[in-house]
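fwd from M.: "can u put these together and see what the complex looks like"

so here's what she sent:
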Amino acid sequence: MKKRNNLGFMLTETLIVSTFVTVALLYMFINFRLIYQNYNRTFSYNTVNSLYAVNQIEKYISDTDFTTIQTKLISDNTQYIELTSCPSNLFKESNYCKKLFEALEVKNVYFTFNDISNLADDLKANPNVDAKVIDFLEFVSYEKGSSGNRLIVFFNDETIATLKII
Amino acid sequence: MKNQKGFTVIELILSFSITTIVVVLLFQLLISLKNLYNATGYKTELFIKQATITEQINKELTSKTIISVDDCGEECIIFNFSDGSNSKLLINREENFIHYGKSATKLVLNSYFGDAKVEFYRNAANLHNSFDSFITIKIPIYYPTYEDENFGINIVYQYNSNDHYIIEEDF
């Protein structure tokens, strides 16, 4: 019988060890990434300052242009309307709206339905929507099939908040 | 006779290299986790202070009507309300305190105030008898480790100047 060469590792041994090491490192990396993602979410979703800011926008819209915006959302048969640029067909005082958004350091304002179950797909179709906004939707609690509207506001400091419009 | 089987130098070098890489990666992960843990602690404390101050001011501003805003010295303003009461907002940089009304909040250790601003905006014409004016109170608070992040307050008080006209001083 031919004697087997015992020098060096066998290919199988090397492959098995490398696989174990790779799997272990991948597992740790994925878990660490999840921890880091959740850490970022904790400090940027629905923070105190952003919630108060959304409340101010809600107060302003409810005071003046709520019916116009709501009618437009329904007539356009869409899931959301972007209010960031304060369009003059939706806001009676477009300049005031712009100044208010500027003071609140707003990046994007979305007016939508309270039930946001179909919103993510529509937002994904718009390349201008930040991925953070889409990710945020997963953490919004809402009643499926519930009526009413909602504001989702993305701020310059990358924080994001939402409030139901009562 | 001594057993000649064992690891070759190449095998040893290879295994040591792999082990070193794995250990270095593990240490980096451990250090990152430790930093993340510390950051969470500091940030939580900073956000709690931010929430406390914002809540104190907003609670009063949303429940009362401001009739005038007075200057009471360097980085100090007084809000006068329609019910006759008033509240002073004061920044004490030396002691790192922010005072509002009867309460005072000390900032987190090592954090510091940025440039505070009080601004007034009034729309030239209020044709629709709705909100047309607002006051912005911005008091940035920074922490050395996160200098690009603002843990301060940004409060906006909106009002309809047809209902009540806020008299403001120059700030």
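replying to her w this: The radius of gyration of chain B is 28 Å.
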